[in-house]
Amino acid sequence: MVQTALKSVYAFKSGHRGMKDLLGSKGANLSEMVQLGLPVPPGFILTTAVCNQYLSREQRLSDRLMAEVNEALRLVEHDLGRVYGDSENPLLLSVRSGAKISMPGMMETVLNLGLNEETLGGLIRQFDNEWFAYDTYRRFVQMFGSVVLGVKKEYFDDLFSHQKAHWGIAEDAQPSVSMMRQLVNAYKEVILDRTGQPFPDSPQEQLRLAIEAVFRSWQTPRAIAYRNHQKIDHALGTAAIVQAMVFGNLGTDSATGVAFTRNPANGDKDLYGEYLMNAQGEDVVAGVRTPEKLSALAVEMPRIYQELSEVAYRLEQHYRDVQDMEFTVERGRLFVLQTRTGKRTVQAAVKIAVDMVEEGLLTREEALLRIDANQLSQLFVPAFNQAEKGKAKHAGRLLAVGLNASPGAATGKLVFDPEEAKQCAAQGEAVILCRVETCPDDIHGILAAQGILTSRGGNTSHASVVARGLGKPCVAGCEACQVDLRAETLTVQGKIFSKGALISIDGTTGEVYEGGLGAETPSHNPGLDVLLSWADQLRRLAVRANADTPSDALKALEMGAEGIGLCRTEHMFMGEERLPVVRQLILARTSGERCQALSQLLPMQRQDFITLLQIMSGKPVTIRLLDPPLHEFLPNREEVQTELLALKQADPYQLAYQEKQLVLRKIDELREVNPMMGFRGCRLGLVYPEIYEMQVRAIFEAACQVLAQGGIVRLEIMIPLVGFASELKQIQQQLDAVAQRVMRERQCGLDYCFGTMIEVPRAALVADELAQCARFFSFGTNDLTQLTLGFSRDDSEGRFLARYLEKDILPNNPFETLDIDGVGRLMTMARDLGRQARPDLKLGLCGEHGGEAQSVQFADRIRLDYVSCSALRIPVARVAAAQAVILGPPEEVGVRSRLFPQVGT
Amino acid sequence: MVQTALKSVYAFKSGHRGMKDLLGSKGANLSEMVQLGLPVPPGFILTTAVCNQYLSREQRLSDRLMAEVNEALRLVEHDLGRVYGDSENPLLLSVRSGAKISMPGMMETVLNLGLNEETLGGLIRQFDNEWFAYDTYRRFVQMFGSVVLGVKKEYFDDLFSHQKAHWGIAEDAQPSVSMMRQLVNAYKEVILDRTGQPFPDSPQEQLRLAIEAVFRSWQTPRAIAYRNHQKIDHALGTAAIVQAMVFGNLGTDSATGVAFTRNPANGDKDLYGEYLMNAQGEDVVAGVRTPEKLSALAVEMPRIYQELSEVAYRLEQHYRDVQDMEFTVERGRLFVLQTRTGKRTVQAAVKIAVDMVEEGLLTREEALLRIDANQLSQLFVPAFNQAEKGKAKHAGRLLAVGLNASPGAATGKLVFDPEEAKQCAAQGEAVILCRVETCPDDIHGILAAQGILTSRGGNTSHASVVARGLGKPCVAGCEACQVDLRAETLTVQGKIFSKGALISIDGTTGEVYEGGLGAETPSHNPGLDVLLSWADQLRRLAVRANADTPSDALKALEMGAEGIGLCRTEHMFMGEERLPVVRQLILARTSGERCQALSQLLPMQRQDFITLLQIMSGKPVTIRLLDPPLHEFLPNREEVQTELLALKQADPYQLAYQEKQLVLRKIDELREVNPMMGFRGCRLGLVYPEIYEMQVRAIFEAACQVLAQGGIVRLEIMIPLVGFASELKQIQQQLDAVAQRVMRERQCGLDYCFGTMIEVPRAALVADELAQCARFFSFGTNDLTQLTLGFSRDDSEGRFLARYLEKDILPNNPFETLDIDGVGRLMTMARDLGRQARPDLKLGLCGEHGGEAQSVQFADRIRLDYVSCSALRIPVARVAAAQAVILGPPEEVGVRSRLFPQVGT
After folding, report:
1. Is the dihedral of CA A755, A761, A764, A768 positive or negative?
2. Scanning every residue of chain B, which has its alpha carbon at the shortest distance from the alpha carbon of A457?
3. What percent of chain B has pLDDT over 90?
4. 20 to 30 A Cα–Cα from B377, which one of A6, A345, B615, B647?
């Protein structure tokens, strides 16, 4: 076996950072620091192989292994000039876990090993501090008792509280030395009582038991659950790190703290962190005292500060990344206890990456790979101040968590009526519009509000879709909230909020807070422009925007869009002055009535397109014809019914009553069991050809006009929900005729083409047939995911999907990160069939996945031409597309060998 | 060119039946009869090539062609001893269309060509019958005027009516010779008036114009639409058949009629048909007089009858199939005018096929191919008497046509309340249960009723699914019917039917009739058993049944099922005494409450399975675990709301009120936007593991008990709605543990395996991963079709699907006939991936397509192991499976080369 040839125990000085498999991440970094000559308390590491051996076969660590441990211990004793278990000059030890992949808080640590009645005396003499020594002894017995011997922590805590009461000392006052002596004895009695064994006084026994406990903590249910969740291999095992204790709580010349080599909040190149004078590491974590900023250390302990700065510089240069260090100052001597890559905000990540390239530490490619592209969109939406949010949570002001339907933070007065929202906004008041669900009738209220809160509906509900389109914060489907529209109250957690109450919603997280919260709009990040320019030089994939309105288009251009990949014309039907006309269209009884309504819509749509095409001046604009089912444009059924009742009581023969009845009948007629798979998309276009004909006329009239005014136009007309080549063929023939007619009328020639969405699985299966008509495909991965997985997005997110993620049935929410194994396979197939039939077929992706990094990288891997996403996500796509190129050539072997088995090995 | 080498005109005697491409079907058959020496009026055929040439290039038929025509005409004149255009002994001609594929009624015919003032005299003398000659002349001018010269038929009809009134003769009385002379002149004036040209008196000109008109009729809009619909190639063209006229209206020694070589209604080997003495063929069609049965001819004209019988025998022996002949007796001389394959009922088809094998006319394989397998299921359901139905339609009693949701015919009193339906049935009354939609609460009413009528819902609505399961006639989604449950009325076509009114529904056609109609249950067809036994010897595909109850299973065995391919356990949850327990289960707030409800269901389910397994004794039984969303088991929301209101008024603090409120809340909680893609199938099984665990326990306890009693058990447990291997793995692990536990408890070993439905497109895409767990796949083609096409069955059938079929966007309803190009491709892929991972993977199909012939043949082509369908469709599947084998080896090149392009050419 290979393992038997390896050593079981490594002194820090014989390891290095490349040995994470064997020594764990923490251990490897400690070794590396020792190699660099940095001041690390000496120690050694029992390898992950020892752990696995122990867990699989042994009841206790072998004597042979303990002999190796003792050998390593001798070196530590020699280094520090203290001896483990010695009653005169005792060495104390810590034993910590340290896996290859960090599992923060999941495994065990034991501190202050080596204490017993005899070595206690040595410790008192060593530091000439009796109180410190007893406090350390107390901490040790308690920690060892709970972690190693398995006595519940409550027993010790209860005892301590009880004794304090008995002694009559206040909760936060310190007990005296004699009290602590009593306490230690009482602790030991508890241990004897609970375990039937006396507390082990032998330092050797303590060490063996502690190492075993650390190894065993790899197997606790919470550690297993964590690894399952994080997809960490259970076979890795943890290392155990045995290290000499150093003490930051020996007086005013001692301290302990954490330090970042750069500011993790904003990326500034300053040593950043916190420390506590005269304290142990656990005190910093526990938050008993408020720590000082590290800048204070420069005044208090200038030499130490200087030394720490040098360590920081060397570590950052060495690791070529921001380091997060733990340090302790023991009586004026600095020790570094740990170093690891520093976590940072996205603002900081961008600045640091760019700065490090300028400093020559990183290449541009490395810098780009350092960015979590998905976080970049956070740079553009307002967010609540984190500290204020934390305080609000502490104060119990977090009311509920709904779906994070549209990112951003907003505070305002509760309003339940869209009309009132509009009026309040007109008077300069910030309001949050709260509804059970929203519908097209509410659009003026949505536009006026700072944010939207609904108690029902999923990520594709009306509120969610509209809010995302408008870039307005929205928390949707917040089922803990009971909304009573008649009483105009919101009831949550037993509290009742009336109209006018101040609330705050965080659309980025789905949280709803009582009262106001300070929001910050991230300041312009100049580093980002630099980073994006590097990404643009590298990436192959074009990035377009999903934009429906002129303001969307302007925003998209600002974010670097190279065109519009999805203009949803239905959003143009939703305008306040248009909805009545659209309803006229739907309620039309004859083709003539339908045409009359359409002729009213035509000039409106034409003007939309003129503005849009002017803004995009020459960049490609992909316009999708009407897609949603018609009932989405009709008012809410229950409201109509209520109105109807009132009208009937007034006078059942009046025209208004009869008209309203017609509306109700139409709502019922159009009601669908599964609207997602119903009468929408090109199915509408084929049954009511007038609608698409009007839209195409509006588009081409607009394009001709822009062209006549000297503009440039690149039009791509997209047919939604196609599943059969015959659908596409019929529609395209009919619409091409309209296009030709308009161009003849206006005597102009346009650069245009027709294409199709690929969003019905069948479309992917017959992509070769579709490509005979379509000049481009745009993968509508939202619907394609719904249908391929059979997951209704509205119904699954609040229900089984959460459980699926918890239970690790799914690795990700497939509506956020593309399901590469399923949907991705279908896309690859569609690409192959499509390009086979039409080699120059243009391929894009316009679902929300177009703004998600992993999905964008997949789009590059399968050689799509572009992705299209909402404006705020364009930077995500640009960086992710560059990362895809940096990460190397496409590897499709996995997919290919499955789809085309005969071709594989 | 090949065409120029071919003759343009073929005398009957120079053609034969193999020349349908060139001579059309009718012409080829006429030629064949002449070859056989049968008494056919002489004639000749202008080929389809002439037609195509005329239509593409010419304004008129060339003189050269007309010379060829005249040459052929000479032979006819010689044969018959009459001369075309001769004033003494004139020959009259007919010109008919005749395409390769019959297009009944779509194209034109012109009769009695060759008449003018001169030849009229000859005709009078020829038959010594002035009235006959004038009547013939009148008919000719009118027909030529409308068909050839394009004068609308109404002009002639109006003139005739007007003249009759003027003459003062009754509508049905015959005009005199002088009146007809006036009429002919008046017709000629109308023609001059409308066309500006005099009526062509030249027989040569008449012939040319008539041939041109017949050719042109290939291009009429209705003919083009028909070919589009029937997928007939427009390039085929029609032949024109020029034939000597013979007359059945020359007195009591003349007659005309149609004859089948065997009885087309029941298949009896008797000459069968109808005739009219002294009449022309068009009189038989027009139904002016009631024709006589052919048996009467044996008495009236025994010699002719004998001659006709001999012709029939020779034709049938020659064509080896039932022939449908037209004949005319002209003054004691028999002429056969046409022969074609006789259409027949399915009862007759079966008997004829079997008889012909016994007679040595056909092989068994040929006999099987003669059957339209899809029609076989009609042999088992009651149907209304066709004649009565026809009369009812004439009488305006057809009220509406809804969806043909479950086949069969039923008559009964209208009842709107399920409870009342039960009471009426208990008193022996036949009732039709009429609802807006049905829900599980109505089950006792559905069971009691003769048939179900609903105004809403599609083919997968509750009523449809349950009725099909019960084999009960159902017309669903009949939107023309307004159902008022409160008033207990059904309003349709402005008529109001109250409770107790007699109505009839035809679930085979979707028709709803006023009043009662006589229904016939088809008698046992002994031929079918023979035919099925031949099919069983040939077929490769096993045929199983979809059966949920013991009575289903018995029926299935009777129909020849080789196992159960789909036992839907949810139907076991719907029983009257079970539904309350199921609701308890759904309303449970804790896992404990859930388990309590489940423990009540367990013994019920166990008993279901015991009976089922006993009945199937050793045949494989595939049991699908709970599939539908839970809300399907809850009562109707509106009803609950009404009840709630009543309870609240009574006393809002009573327990019943609060419980009902809980129900309403649960209904709202479980309400889904797209239930088809929601929280159902294995998603339920994963979130509430107790449910599947109970089901598996019930199954295995039942199986162990049957085994202990000496029975044989072959169990296949099927997990529904799987899309991810992780789903299957988790469920299977968990359920396998239950199975093992039960077997240990009962100390028995069972033959069992787990498998999965393939009904979510993703499942097909990752079939290799699924096959690592699943021992079998069953293609759930209903849901697979819905998701692959994005067609909600409930929403599409009533809406765009009908339009899609009309507009030829789809060739078939994909829920009836499998979409081979789309869904079929996905299935082929799943098969390849699945068998790659597990070569002995068993593959089945259990959607409704399992009982549709074309789909069954596809299942054989892609080498599935079995299909499963409802009991009544089992004969369809058995025959279709045999047909697939007879039709030859699988040809998958089309599919394969598309799915695996690299492998193709």
Report:
1. negative
2. B673
3. 68
4. B615
Residue B146 pLDDT exceeds 50: yes
- At B96, give phi and psi (nearest 5°): -125, 155
* Contacts with A465 (C-beta within 8 Å, 6 or more apart), sequence order: none
Catalytic choice (B51, B424, B439, B462): B462
Query: Of B375, B285, B355, which Cα lies nearest the Cα of B326?
Result: B285
Considering only CA atoms, which of B690, B736, B711, B754 is closest in space to residue B610? B711
Distance (Å) from the alpha carbon of B665 to chain A's nearest alpha carbon: 12
**Which helix or strand (DSSP H or E) is residue A304 part of?**
helix A302-319
Q: Contact B787/A783, CB-based, under 8 Å?
A: no
Q: Which is the catalytic residue, given B424, B846, B849, B869?
A: B846
Q: Which of A789, A795, A808 sits opposite B673 (nearest CB)?
A: A795
Average pLDDT, chain A: 90
Cα separation, B139 vs B715, in Å, equals 73
- What is the ipTM for the molecules in this complex? 0.85
Per-residue pLDDT tens for B833-886? 999 999 999 999 998 999 999 999 999 999 999 999 999 899 999 999 999 999
Catalytic residue check, A524: no
pLDDT tens-digit readout, A293-351: 999 999 999 999 999 999 999 999 999 999 999 999 999 999 999 999 998 888 899 99
Do A764 and B787 form a contact (C-beta atoms < 8 A)?
no
Residue position matching structure tokens 């000479």: B74
Is the confidence at residue B68, as pLDDT, over 80? yes
Handedness of CA B674, B676, B678, B679 (dihedral sign): positive
Chain B residues in contact with A826 (beta carbon < 8 A): 761, 765
Which residues from B are below 8 Å from A833, CB to CB? 898, 901
Q: Which residues of A555-583 are buried (b: 16+ CB within 10 A; e: fewer)?
A: bbbebbbbbbbbbbbbbbbbbeebbebbb
Q: CA–CA separation, B261 vs B267, rounded Å? A: 10
Long-range pairs of A863-866 with CB within 8 A, sequence gap ≥ 24: A863/A831, A863/A890, A864/A541, A864/A779, A864/A831, A865/A541, A865/A542, A866/A541, A866/A542, A866/A543, A866/A544, A866/A562, A866/A563, A866/A565, A866/A842
Instruction: Please give the helix or strand (H or E) that residue B514 lies within, else none.
Output: strand B511-514
Q: Which residues on A lie below 8 Å from B820 (Cβ)?
A: none
Contacts of B789 in chain A (CB under 8 A): 723, 760-762
* Model confidence band, residue B891 (pLDDT cutoffs 50, 70, 90): low
Measure CB to CB from residue A822 to each of B458, B765, B809 and give the nearest one: B765
**Band of residue A897 on the pLDDT scale cut at 50, 70, 90:** very low
pLDDT of residue A435: 93
Nearest chain A residue to B725 by CA distance is A809
Rounded to the nearest 10°, the torsion over CA B457, B463, B469, B473 is -100
**How far is B82 from B726, CA to CA, in rounded Å?**
87
| Residue pairs between chains A and B whose CB atoms are closer than 8 Å | 205
Mean pLDDT of all residues in chain B?
90
Contact A730 B807 (CB under 8 A): yes
Q: Which residues pair with B719 in a beta bridge?
A: B756
Closest chain B residue to A900, measured at CA: B900
Biggest CA pair distance of chain A: 106
Residue closest to B877 by CA, chosen among B212, B173, B374, B383: B374
Measure the CA–CA gap between A506 and A513, rounded to whole angstroms: 8
A869 catalytic, yes or no?
no
Query: Are A169 and A175 a contacting pair, CB within 8 Å?
Result: yes
Interface contact flag, A674 B674, Cβ < 8 Å: yes
pLDDT digits (tens, 9 = 90+) for B418-445: 989 989 988 889 999 999 888 877 888 8
